[in-house]
Model the fold of this input.
Amino acid sequence: MSNKLTLSGTIWIAADLHLGPDNPDTVQDFLQFLHSAQHQANALILGGDIFNAWIGDDQIAHPAPWLAQVSEALRTFAQQHPLYLMRGNRDFLLGQTYARHVHATLLPDQVILDTSAGLVLMSHGDEYCLDDLAYQRFRYWVRKPWLQKLYLACPLSLRQRIADSARAGSQRGKQYKSKEIMDVQPAAIVATCEAHPVHAMVHGHTHRPAVHDIPGFEPVRRWVLPDWDAESDSAKRGGYISIEGAQLCLHQWGKEDQCQTLKPQQV
Done:
């Protein structure tokens, strides 16, 4: 893979924040997270689904108050440390205009992070969910440049209605899908490990945070990022992955950290 990013120092990675006007508590948690990252991390990667829906970079011309607040906090972080953004299934229309607006670098769908702990393959993760055929059809079409161009030519209000309708349809569809269908396909993970020999894989998307062994590729593990939600009455969800020195750790709110000292192998 030619997409390689060399990073030094402490790296924080978060994904599936789903920021938007309907989750003000989650927005506030994220702003506090950015403040902590500014003082404790040397670089920050946001690995997709940063926003609950992204209907075009032209939103920044007249941003909603929550978006203006988030963008200003991202700019503040990026003035001191490198900031990287990745597209997800909710914000696949995130573009270079917004990245420049917050002084961030927009990453490709997959990137190999060259870190002090070794090589880490980073992606949003939806490309591994091959058993979810309906979603993969949707993903195929919405990534078409001509379709995106047509959508972005519509007024913002119409784009918002289309996005709301698509999200509602997706939520209804999930009721009839098993957790296995919406999770990554094991064969896709094995194929990826065969194609890209790395020391660890990191992704989000599935909302099933955990650390998984990959049979046949030990000690390489698959690290799944948590999704964020501070709005429900139950315990808040959220967290991030840190890479510091030779250690990679999964941090989840209210849970014990899971860490591994990555042992370099021939790559």
Q: What stands out?
A: The chain has a mean pLDDT of 90. The longest helix spans residues 156-174.
